[in-house]
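queue> pop job 88
queue> type: inverse folding (structure -> sequence)
queue> payload:
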């Protein structure tokens, strides 16, 4: 509850792709799902900020449907299993996500406040954040739509700014919004900083749900119309709420700032000092990271000689630098990025080019995540492929068979329960099993620790679409694969 007694419903907006943090962040595994500033992911950190049961109601996450199992698993590991995960069929920007959250909150509560937070931001001082939230809640309870504005610590050109107006209450800190300003050039940002009248736009909102819907109806009626229909036609999919696709896709793609906040006379802003960053670039991680004596932030196995002012990250391999400065170097299993630190805002241009050229690294990496765990190709050649497979505790793959390949499984650690035709076989560390072509099989992890194994495939065709699935625990979307004559040959579950 807020100090005014109004229920606060925390909502994490998890639809972004974080292309400026490529190659670590990809569409299939975006930055909010990554551990960039500690052992917990940005999503987990955001969820924990809104976990106080005295202050908050049930957590809601509005997310890309493709990430649903990853999000659910990350929330489960921090004991947040009761969150409502709402699935968007496709991203329609923050106005639609906010409308959906407000409509759903109003179905459960009479007059709630919705706290809209991007799931991919870093807030270092949670106590200061909660203190700012209390100020915002008092103002929101009177009908204002609150933004959280960060007092700028530098003339940044990476953020949008908000010019503050008069105080809402002569005794308080909350101010009216005078105007919004796009990302400025350096000279303008310096003027903003010197004036003391401008705050960074954090993209965090606290709004009375009824007022938010009223103002959206006033300024962006098509958004509300589409979202109301999408909520009414929503269906349950396991533990997820899947919005009606046909209705939701008619919503205009527009931000909440553009749709409402720049037009309403109810916009107000809370000047805040809770050490915030939107992690919108590699240099942002360099700025908040622990810098060594040479101003370097090093992550992973790194050797930096005669190197200064650089962010260097190795994901599983040694990275060595010599005689360089002010660089971003990020090495993953399939990509190496080298960029001048002053140009890292343009990393998304590389991603856009890779998409145009059809390069798979623009979307995903070699490690492919699935509801049950993940797999990665280690080596492939003529008629064979070697993969590493990780199965989460208690999870299992679909019951399936292959037309064109046989498989050999070797358990590295953990315990595997294997179904092979009519048999059930328990495998432990260093034990193996052969699965001949055409056998019906399934892999499960009955243990409490992750199961890791090596899979050796051999056969004439090794594509992922050579699968006939008989059972699947995750209600994933099914696509029928046909041959050139139109005959069904496989069911591919995404």
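queue> result:
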């Amino acid at each position: 509850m807020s100090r005014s007694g109004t229920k606060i419903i925390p909502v994490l907006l998890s639809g972004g792709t974080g292309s400026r943090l490529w190659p670590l962040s990809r569409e299939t595994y975006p930055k909010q799902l990554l551990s960039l500033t500690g052992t917990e992911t940005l999503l987990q950190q955001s969820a924990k900020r809104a976990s106080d049961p005295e202050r908050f109601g049930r957590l809601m996450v509005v997310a890309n449907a493709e990430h649903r199992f990853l999000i659910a698993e990350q929330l489960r590991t921090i004991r947040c299993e009761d969150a409502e995960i709402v699935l968007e069929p496709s991203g329609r920007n923050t106005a639609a996500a906010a409308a959906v959250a407000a409509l759903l909150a109003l179905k459960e509560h009479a007059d709630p406040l919705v706290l809209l937070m991007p799931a991919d931001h870093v807030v270092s001082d949670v106590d200061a954040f909660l203190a700012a939230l209390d100020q915002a809640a008092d103002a929101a309870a009177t009908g204002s739509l609150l933004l959280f504005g960060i007092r700028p610590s530098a003339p940044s050109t990476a953020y949008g700014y908000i010019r503050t107006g008069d105080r809402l209450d002569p005794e308080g800190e909350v101010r009216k919004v005078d105007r919004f300003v796009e990302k400025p050039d350096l000279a303008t940002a310096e003027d903003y900083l010197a004036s003391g009248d401008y705050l960074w736009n954090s993209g965090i909102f606290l709004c009375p749900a009824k007022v938010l819907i009223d103002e959206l109806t006033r300024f962006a009626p098509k958004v509300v119309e589409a979202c109301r229909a999408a909520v009414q036609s929503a269906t349950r999919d396991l533990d997820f709420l899947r919005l009606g696709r046909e209705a939701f896709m008619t919503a205009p793609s527009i931000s909440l700032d553009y749709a409402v906040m720049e037009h309403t006379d109810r916009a107000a802003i809370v000047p805040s000092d809770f050490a915030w960053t939107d992690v919108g670039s590699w240099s942002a991680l360099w700025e908040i990271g622990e810098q060594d004596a040479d101003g370097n932030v090093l992550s992973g196995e790194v050797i930096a000689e005669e190197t200064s002012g650089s962010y260097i990250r190795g994901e599983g391999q040694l990275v060595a630098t010599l005689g360089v400065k002010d660089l971003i170097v990020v090495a993953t299993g399939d990509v190496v990025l080298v960029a001048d630190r002053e140009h890292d805002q343009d990393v998304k241009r590389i991603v856009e080019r890779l998409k145009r050229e059809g390069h798979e690294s623009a979307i995903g990496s070699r490690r492919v995540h699935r509801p049950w765990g993940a797999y990665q190709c280690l080596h492939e050649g003529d008629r064979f492929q070697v993969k590493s497979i990780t199965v989460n505790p208690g999870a299992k793959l679909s019951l399936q068979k292959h037309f064109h390949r046989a498989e050999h499984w070797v358990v590295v650690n953990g315990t595997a329960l294997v179904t092979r035709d009519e048999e059930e076989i328990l495998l432990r560390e260093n034990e193996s099993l052969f699965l001949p072509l055409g056998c019906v099989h399934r892999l499960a992890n009955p243990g409490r620790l992750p199961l890791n194994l090596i899979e050796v495939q051999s056969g004439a065709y090794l594509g992922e679409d050579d699968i006939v699935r008989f059972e699947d625990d995750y209600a994933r979307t099914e696509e029928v694969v046909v041959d050139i004559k139109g005959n069904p040959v496989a069911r591919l579950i995404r």
